[in-house]
């Protein structure tokens, strides 16, 4: 039982040294082989932990008291190149506690045998005093058989609903999840990168992305520098994500930026942000594209308003035309009645009364 931690600590010590002798290098290689045999899960997680990509999603739940007993899902969000959702049981999952889970979204579309080692932590936000927020850490390997994982008993419902806490304020509950996941993968299955091509001897990237990456990396060398200590798989995912964004911006015209295209760019951008590039040079341009879409949205809404008003005017004109036709009929009826009845009466004569 003592062998595993002892060997592992030796491995970490030698691995962390800046200089190796030939003998120590062989020793580290030997220890790596042992660790893979006696504790592959610990070895893999510790060695690749430096490649974890982290992100946080905040879910503001309005009208919390109106939620039924069944599960409720958040919108889909992307962290580390993967799609996620939060899952909540507001009245507990067969317990008198708030139940919170992290769900691997769209799991049915993932390839056979997929798995995803993840560290994550839930936070129930105290809206009066964030220092009193409740945070709980978990880790789990998501697979096709366990697509969601979390805490069935996060906090007793009695404590959640206490008036002297800030967990429920004006019927609003705020929960957060911070996700750390290893080696983001391609999340947009519908975008083919085509033939792979070597990129600066680092990794092989989709052929269409390479000239775009060469162009920006020549202008911004830090894009390469910040990935030098990462694993090959991580670097490939990172530059593929950057290539997708560049390719989208290069091949999409302003007239093609409809709601679907805007959502796609948003998804690509969120995926890219997870890889911690310095994107100060690109972010203002991407934000301007989203700003342009907002302006286009305003124009489209104004067009809809104009169309609605024009249709309203057409409807009212039709009603007015009918009213005018009815008016002409009424005028004719009036003229006929005046001719038939009033022409025979002396309107200036006294009404009088009969005498015997």
From TrEMBL:
It comes from the Eukaryota. Keywords: Coiled coil, Kinase, Transferase. Signal peptide: none annotated. The keyword Transferase applies. Residues 54-179 form the MATH domain. PROSITE patterns: MATH. It holds the Pfam family MATH_2. GO terms for molecular function: kinase activity. Residues 299-347 form a coiled coil. CDD domains: MATH (cd00121). This is Inactive serine/threonine-protein kinase fnkC. It comes from Pyrus ussuriensis x Pyrus communis. The lineage of its organism: Eukaryota, Viridiplantae, Streptophyta, Embryophyta, Tracheophyta.
